[in-house]
Amino acid sequence: MTTSTTKTENIHFRISADVRSLIEKAMLVSGRSLTEFATSSLIDSANAVLEREYTTVLSNRDRDILLQLLDADDEPDRGLVEAADLHRQLVLSK
Fold it and tell me: Largest CB tally within 10 Å, which of 41, 57, 64, 66?
């Protein structure tokens, strides 16, 4: 079963003739329409930006430290308990 999405939004922008020519060449080589090519390119670019923004890369040393901390059976200290209580009061109660 296939699902379809209703396309109701438009994006309008101006580009130079050189840029349009470059895009048209890439579009023809890829065998896609301008809409398909532009949409795919914008989605790829948006995903790359968001991945860079929301991904943290750890060194091997930092990864090992993080895993040790996650595996530790230590009880939370007073400061962490107070921070959790404050979070519950300020954020979760809303």
Answer: 41
